[in-house]
C-alpha cells in the first residue's frame, strides 16, 4: 500500500488517504486495508478510483459508492470522480493488509 502511495502524485496520495477513512459497514475495516482499492488516478481534477468489492452481490455496494463519492469529492483539488468497479483481479483475503487480517482475526 505505501509503495503505491509513494509513486503517486500528492493529490492521488491525498485521495488514497481519504479512502482509508471509508469503512466497509459489514467488516468494520477501511477499503484500503481490505485491499479493495486497486488504483487512484487524478488528471486535471478528475479522479478515477479503480476498485472491487469482496463479492459481486455485495449488499452494501450502493452505500460504499456514496461514501466513496462523498469522501473523495471533499479532497481539495478533486472536481469529479469516476468509480471504476472491476472484477479482475478477483479480490481474495490475501489482498488485505496485516492490520485488516489481525482486526478480523485471520491468522496465517
From TrEMBL:
MIP18 family-like domain boundaries: 13-82
InterPro entries: Fe-S_Maturation_MIP18, FSCA_dom_sf, MIP18-like
Pfam families with a match to the protein in the record: FeS_assembly_P
Organism domain of life: Bacteria
PANTHER family: FE-S PROTEIN MATURATION AUXILIARY FACTOR YITW (PTHR42831)
Name of the protein in its database record: MIP18 family-like domain-containing protein
